[in-house]
Amino acid sequence: MTNLYRVLELDTKNRQNITKAQIREAYVNLALRHSDKGGDNTAFQEISNAYRVLYDENKRKQYDADNDTQDRQIIIISQLISTIVKMEPEFLKKIAFIGGGCSLVLGFVSLLAEDDFTLGARLGLAVSIENFKYEILSLVDKNHRRDVALYLDQIIENIKSQ
Questions:
Q1: Could you tell me what percent of the chain has a pLDDT over 90?
Q2: What is the pLDDT of residues 88-126, one digit of tens each?
């Protein structure tokens, strides 16, 4: 997902403090550089779209909320991966290869699915896997995505059926 603040070359760390005037100024400056008259039409469209979303207060609030959710999910996955990497070598050997670029995450998820959780915890795990499925798939190289997606679906079904 393209960061619209970056498209307009605005400071993403202080996005709450960015004013409509700053958004407009950034748009005008970039639009002059990437004019639709003989310039890079794709860049101009991207700049125009960023301006339309960020300048409209309602669209901007929705964009920020969606972005915050995505950021939180990425942080959770990063923490999960970080935790896995710090685990004991013997445990890592058990989950070493399942396929694709995120075998540790998939192995960890499959081991969690096999543990003796309560029904509520199992359903929570299934929902978590469903929620993070596309983020997990984004970590997998293209050649393995279909297999990993099927594997995740199978884990989700197994968790729900137990």
A1: 17
A2: 545 444 444 444 444 545 555 555 555 544 555 555 566
Between CA 104 and CA 98 the distance in angstroms is 8
- In whole angstroms, give the CA distance from residue 84 to residue 107: 10
H or E segment and range at residue 122: helix 119-138
Q: Mark out the alpha helices in 34-56 (DSSP H runs).
A: 41-55
Determine the topology of domain 4-55 in CATH.
Helix Hairpins (1.10.287)
Task: Please state, as a whole number, how many other Cβ atoms lie within 10 Å of the Cβ of residue 125.
Answer: 19
Closest CA to 22 of 69, 54, 63: 54
All CATH 1.10.287.110 domain ranges in the chain, comma separated = 4-55
Asked if residues 50 and 4 have their Cβ atoms less than 8 Å apart, the reply is: yes
